[in-house]
Amino acid sequence: MAFGFEPLAEWIDGAGWALIMGAVAALLAFVASRTVQWGSREHRHHLEHLTEVEFAELFLFLDPVRFLQWNLMAALALPLITFIWIGAQTAAVVFSVVIVAPTLIYRVLKQRRRRALEPQLAEAASAMASSLRSGLAFGQALEQVVKHQPAPISQEFALVLREQRLGVPIDKALQGFAARVDLPDARMLVTTLAIARELGGGLAEALERFASTLRRRLALEERIRALTAQGRLQGLIMGALPLVLGWVLYLMEPSVMGRMLHEPLGWLVLVLIVVLEAAGYLLIRRIVDIRV
Predict the structure, then answer these.
(1) Under a CB-based contact definition with an 8 Å cutoff, are residues 210 and 266 in contact?
(2) Residue 174, Cβ neighbours under 10 Å: how many?
(3) Helix then strand then coil, % of the chain, to nearest 5
(4) Residue 128 in contact with residue 189, Cβ under 8 Å?
(5) Is the confidence at residue 281, as pLDDT, over 70?
(6) Measured between alpha carbons, how far is 49 from 54 in angstroms, rounded to an integer?
(7) Rounded mean pLDDT of 178-205?
(8) Of the candidates 216, 215, 193, 188, the residue with the CA atom closest to the CA atom of residue 206
(9) For residues 283 and 221, is the Cβ–Cβ distance under 8 A?
(10) Residue 2: helix, strand or coil by DSSP?
(11) pLDDT tens, 213-223?
(12) Which of 82, 152, 68, 149 is nearest to 117 (CA)?
């Protein structure tokens, strides 16, 4: 028995295709709207955690609502201006940069704070050792560090003292300090303090040895950084040279170089260039990054 599909084919060829396309468009619109809602909700939660927790750990206290408003305004205004003046592709890049900018700013500020803390740990240890030798208690030695040492080390130890006054044991407050700054030298300082306090030995002598060891290591790292500065500069030059050369060639032959921006094969070449450039730069950084 044969079934005839000609009426069904005719119906699909007619109004059916419009219904199918409308259903597919409605489904895609629903998925896109749900994706946008989920992404905006996750981005809002991320910014709230960033301002309330992570920036607060850097002693930068921001209003989460105002920070979210500014980020939303930038995410809407800057891509729109870029789209009007330049084009859609650059506007998409600007939108991506605006979205990830708060996280990048936090990481840069945290790295700067960590670099400032490293030499200050040695000075704080020496100051505590001098205070202990003069007859002060450990808590009073911490107060002297807070009063006479610059930020950020004074801020961190002020928080340790504040936690101690609220009833937190001093060992736990110091462990929180080490976890907050996330530095091996800070963990070593906390371990030195814990061992010396538990064994009842010479705490001042232990702090002096820690400060002397840390100063020698930092001096050696600075010397290594100076000796490898040429290699790091070569990595930056080698990474930027193809970009500058591509821009110059685009100015000289826009019709030829424009194919890399408007054709799939050109996009593949650009992706390959970016991957190879990133791999070469990371390899050079790995060679000149000498750990002490």
Answers:
(1) no
(2) 24
(3) 85, 0, 15
(4) no
(5) yes
(6) 7
(7) 86
(8) 193
(9) no
(10) coil
(11) 999 999 998 88
(12) 152
